Amino acid sequence: MPLINKASKRKRTDSHLAPEATPETSTASMQEHIAIIVDEEGDSEDVHSEDLDYPWCKDVRVTATTKDAVQVGHCKGYLIDRARIRHHFYEEMDGPDHDVKEFGVYMFDRFGNLKLDFYQHPVKRGTGAWGEEINKGRILLITSVFVKKEFRGQGHGKTMVQELWNKARATSKECMFAATMPAISRAPHLPMPTPQETARGEALLSLAEEFWRAVGFRRIGSSPYYGFAQDEAHPSKSLKVAADYRRPLALQGPKYHGNQEWPYTREMTTAKDDHLLGILRDRLQEVPGDHPIWVAKDNHGNNIMHIAAHRRPRSLAFLFDLDQAHHLETARNLEGETPLEFALARVEKTRLCKEYMDMAMEASNDFDGLTYAEHECVLKLMHITNPRQHLSEQIRFGCTCAECIEGFISPRMAEALRTQAALIFDLLRSESGADIEDEGDRWLRLNDHFLRYIPSPLHARLRTSYTLRQGYTHAFLFIRDLLGEKRFPSFHEVAERAEKQTSQHTKMFLQQGGGVASVIFTCIDKAVEEDEYLGDGSYYDCFGDTVDALKPCRNDHEFGFVRRQYCKHERITDGADIELGRFVHNDFEDF
Asked: Can 6-243 and 254-385 be said to share one CATH topology?
């Protein structure tokens, strides 16, 4: 029987698991003198991540030893509960381990959901075996598997992976998926590898990938990560090893090497627009169409149009005037991206996350849309000239539904804010109180959480003024109606509607500095509290059918972004003062 190392305060797990519940492996080659032992919680010499700092991330490890306590190998992973960190996913994933951070940033959006490209993009979806199902439940990220050289080829690596999965499942039945990225360790201080070293590294990487496929893992989309599903009916289970997606190896240099006529130097890839345009004019003006220069690619498979597609509109316009433009704009790089997709992917990457001193920080709330150069490049790549304003704004703000109000309030976002405006209106109206001081005090106490953004001087007058309380209350009704009509709820729209409907209460509220932003921000706060990713999920629980009937969009849950753009649209200049309820609308004097 296998040895149980009692002195280590660890326990051996059952080595046999039903095939449908574990990564595929055979334990027949497991010799009797080898033990698989699993670390107990808090037992390792290392700091376990179930400490208070990372309660959502559990450190799971197994070790194989001989009966003489000689280590055979070890396997380590992290059991990640994304549901607990969706509100600050990137920043939380940055904590436990560098591998955890890389996994989170590369594979998931800022709410911990698999990036759409990995199951919707024609190339990046890979075999198409993975999709939204991976967004639910906990996931085991396996970060290392090591077997000493003299013990290799005997099945110990497979068995340790099996036991690691067994431990994760025993810890939480919500663990439905595992993931790993096959890699070859290399010291960071070593010089760039030679071609021979590169070829050997690629061969070793191929062996590592075949190991994970043999254990039952299959590549997730076109990413470098492999996944394993608990469900036997999952599409990856029926995917043969030979049919799994093969990710292209990185090119080791330009496709074309010719007496420095077309070198992919750092000068070209980092050149600003005017500089690159000069290079292109010097080298491409008279080049024949069958010249190898037109198929030249850099180490990432990018051609010259990919390079120009990122913030170089003048260079891009020059390339589109050439006869080879169609070939250049339809070519795909190693990630499977055309120049247009490459440009949009670069924008999306900077929109989602920014890194500072190797720390991952969420950036979505600070997104101000495409820069002028990015916008011009995307329009050119989409063959759009003189776009109408609404289309231009939708492209600028990353709208993917073609229905966003002012380019950034998506149908689902508008419905969430409209619903909250209606609910808040009903709550405030039922407690408006009479025009006496006692009723005002009661109204303020009951609705304090809806009054955060009321300017301080006006807030004091709400206690004694029934008219102002009614004005604030009815402003929510106007917001509800405007969003229902797919109109932007601006200061002037609300003021004009109050004038037409002879709503003297709301008109007085606006005239005395109440502002519409105080109403919008209150709706946003309440929507965030009930959002399925940022809050308790109660909104979707109640109105899921309505939400599902609306067209999805990239901007659906970007409440911070919508708030920021509302401020810019309405020319509200001091974000800090908004937090304190002291904002000033720059158009107030026009009312």
From this structure: no
Report how far residue 154's alpha carbon sits from residue 36's, in angstroms, rounded to the nearest whole number.
14
The answer to whether residues 553 and 404 touch, using CB atoms and an 8 Å cutoff, is yes
82 touches 58 (CB < 8 A): no
Domain boundaries, the chain: 6-243, 254-385, 411-590
pLDDT at position 40 is 46
User: CATH second-level architecture of 254-385?
Assistant: Alpha Horseshoe (1.25)
Question: Residues near 490 by Cβ (< 8 Å), separated by ≥ 6?
Answer: 516, 569, 570
β-pairing verdict for 138-147 and 175-180: parallel
Q: How far is CA 208 from the centre of its chain?
A: 28
Cα 105 from Cα 97, distance rounded (Å): 13
The four Cα atoms 329, 332, 337, 341 give a dihedral, to 10 degrees, of 0
List Cα–Cα distances, 172 to 21, 130, 162, in angstroms: 14, 22, 16
pLDDT for the residue numbered 572:
78
Please give the Cα distance from 352 to 348 (Å, whole number). 6
Number of alpha carbons in the 13 Å side-chain half-sphere of residue 438: 0
Distance CA 475, CA 484 (A): 14
Query: How many CB atoms neighbour CB 249 within 10 A?
Result: 13
Residue type, 341: E
| 344-353 own/partner pairs: CB under 8 Å, 24+ apart | 344/378, 345/117, 346/310, 347/374, 347/398, 348/398, 351/398, 352/90, 352/105, 352/109, 352/110, 353/90, 353/105, 353/110
Q: How far apart are CA 209 and CA 226, in angstroms?
A: 9
User: Which residue, 388, 389, 395, is CA-closest to 371?
Assistant: 395
Instruction: Give pLDDT, residue 191.
Output: 63
User: Cα–Cα distance between 292 and 261 in angstroms, integer?
Assistant: 11
If we measure between CA atoms, which residue out of 140, 16, 25 comes closest to residue 79?
Answer: 140
Residue 519 vs residues 294, 341, 474, 525: alpha-carbon distances, Å: 56, 38, 10, 10
The runs of H, that is alpha helices, within 321-409 are 325-330, 339-352, 372-381, 389-396
pTM, 2 dp: 0.84
Low pLDDT (below 50) residues in the chain: 1-21, 24-32, 40-52, 188, 251-261, 434-436, 574-591
CATH 1.10.3720.10 fits 6-243, yes or no: no
